[in-house]
Amino acid sequence: MDLDAYQRGALRTAASRDKRNELLHLVLGLVGESGEVAEKFKKWVRDLDSDESRIDRADIAKELGDVLWYVAVLADYLDLSLNDIAAANLAKLASRHRRGVLGGSGDNR
């Protein structure tokens, strides 16, 4: 699926950007859903001894879908295209790879 097409689809279920505190709602929603992904893995470590064969991939996929929805709607709120974000991210990572700084730290490496 094309990322911008997904973004347009996600917007069909999003609140109006004119809604009071909508930007904050989107940021907190993204953090919350990302936390739910982390929580699933915390329980995997705690309860399932980090056995990769026991990861509930369907459950993780649902949570990642929620993360993706918030990313798409937040990006739109800020007038950003998911296609453009993805392309810029891949270009940044390719540059870091070429320069041998993938494993370093800092935003501007």
TrEMBL record:
CDD domains: NTP-PPase_u4. SUPFAM superfamilies: all-alpha NTP pyrophosphatases (SSF101386). InterPro entries: dCTP_Pyrophosphatase, MazG-like_dom, MazG-related_GP37. Transmembrane segments: none annotated. It comes from the Bacteria. Pfam families: MazG. Residues 25-98 form the NTP pyrophosphohydrolase MazG-like domain. This is Nucleoside triphosphate pyrophosphohydrolase family protein. It comes from Rugosimonospora acidiphila.
